[in-house]
Design goal:
By secondary structure, the chain is mainly beta. The chain is built from two helices and 27 strands. The chain has helices spanning about 160-170, 215-220; strands spanning about 1-10, 20-30, 35-45, 50-55, 80-85, 90-95, 95-110, 115, 120-130, 135-145, 150, 155, 175, 180-185, 185-200, 200-210, 225-235, 245-250, 280, 280-285, 290, 300, 305-315, 320-335, 340-355, 360-370, 375-385. The strands form five sheets. It has an 18-stranded antiparallel β-sheet that branches. A three-stranded antiparallel β-sheet has the order 8-11-12, with no helix packed on it. The chain is globular, with a radius of gyration of 22 Å. About 30% of the residues are buried. This is Capsule assembly protein Wzi.
């Protein structure tokens, strides 16, 4: 059983600038451990935001996604402590439309978690926008880098400012240190494109995310790997089907036909950062990536997956029950260097229904997972939410 208790307070510094304070704890009886779930200060203005501490990332797509927004940066793992600085969508009129940009710069710390202790994450993204009448086109790039820290096998990794400049530039390979040549960083990232169309009754968005962890991926030599999908959201608040999200994931290529030496990418694993793209026993990326037990990195990063999320409201004038339905199916093949003998087929489903709205919002959850290589798993949950002054 896992339990989470969180709270948040806010104050207005001006009519347009708001300051938030939040915190929470998490308890898991399987490991008899209490951890800090959140502890942060967040400043929000009409143009930019600043966050200090551990704060859960915003929920996108009405909470229906298996990756939230990017297959490398989901909400599957606990938030890392750090500093975040980012802009909202900034736009300027050009001709009959608007051009704009959105960007973010973030630095996080792993602490003692992982094979390399005190490692850090650098993250930035940059998006260009164009809006015209009832449609919007967005394109950008995400960049992540694991760097610095103390490896149990290789000792101290380069963490000076010169190496940080190389990290910022996305430079790969080795760098000279007093202890010999060391890896600059474990780079990850992806390109993203989305197209959104708005009409009087609903919005419809189509999107694509690529994935790369070396030069071949940056050159798109691993295409068609990535995340594809569409998102529908109704403008009617209490519609029986309020929003629908479909995602298709494909990671089978991994630059296998690349003409260079960057082949068989082995997504989210790294020779120096052996824990891989994980934090506190959870994958930072999409849940379709599978961990080893005990954790020594990712054991499954070649998969074909489908995910469907639906939300809406059922009931009548007197009683209404908002619901959320999540359905996923994946065909898992392991890794190129460690393939499964036979593909693993996994189906999972979850339904959440809000059964009471008043002093507390009460939601009930139930879920199931059917695995071709394991016994079925069933689960349930209860959510209580108390809101003060609409915060």
């Amino acid at each position: 059983m896992a339990s989470t208790l969180t709270g948040r307070a806010s104050t207005f510094l001006s009519s347009e600038i708001q300051l938030f304070f939040g915190g929470g704890i998490n308890y898991n009886d399987q490991i008899s451990n209490v951890r800090i779930a959140e502890l942060y200060t967040h400043l929000n203005t009409p143009w930019f935001y600043v966050t200090l501490g551990k704060k859960n990332r915003p929920l996108y797509y009405n909470g229906l996604s298996a990756s939230n927004e990017n297959l490398l940066w989901s909400i599957n793992a606990a938030p890392l402590p750090g500093v975040q600085l980012g802009s909202h969508e900034l736009t300027w009129p050009v001709g009959n439309g608007f051009v704009g940009l959105q960007l973010s710069w973030e630095e996080f710390w792993f602490g003692d978690d992982g094979y390399v202790e005190q490692a850090r994450i650098h993250h930035k993204f940059f998006r260009l926008l164009y809006k015209h009448d009832n449609w919007k086109l967005s394109a950008g790039v995400q960049h992540f880098a694991q760097w610095d820290g103390f490896s149990r096998k290789e000792g101290q990794q380069p963490g000076d400012w010169r190496n940080y400049l190389k990290v910022l530039a996305g430079k790969e390979g080795l760098t000279n240190t007093p202890a010999g040549k060391k890896i600059i960083a474990n780079h990850l990232g992806g390109y993203e494109v989305s197209f959104t169309r708005t009409n009087p009754y609903f919005d419809l968005q189509f999107f694509y995310n690529s994935i790369f962890d070396d030069l071949s991926g940056r050159r798109m030599e691993n295409f068609p790997d990535g995340r594809y999908g569409f998102y529908y959201i109704s403008h009617e608040d209490n519609a029986p089907v309020q929003s629908v999200l479909y995602e298709f994931y494909y990671t089978m290529h991994q630059s296998k036909n690349s003409p260079g030496f960057h082949k068989y990418d082995d997504y989210l694993n790294n020779g120096t950062y052996k824990s891989g793209w994980t934090f506190q026993d959870k994958v930072i990326g999409s849940t379709f990536f599978t961990l080893r037990d005990p954790i020594e990195g990712i054991i499954n990063n070649r998969f074909i997956a489908h995910h469907l999320g639906i939300s809406g409201v059922v009931g009548n004038y007197f009683y209404s029950f908002p619901y959320k339905l999540l359905l996923s199916y994946s065909e898992n093949h392991g890794r190129y260097i460690e393939p499964y003998d036979t593909p693993q087929h996994v189906f999972s489903g979850l339904i959440e229904v809000q059964v009471y709205k008043g002093l507390f919002d009460v939601k009930l959850q139930t879920g199931i997972e059917l695995d071709s290589q394991a016994a079925p798993t069933f689960g349930g949950g209860l959510s209580l939410k108390y809101t003060v002054f609409g915060s």
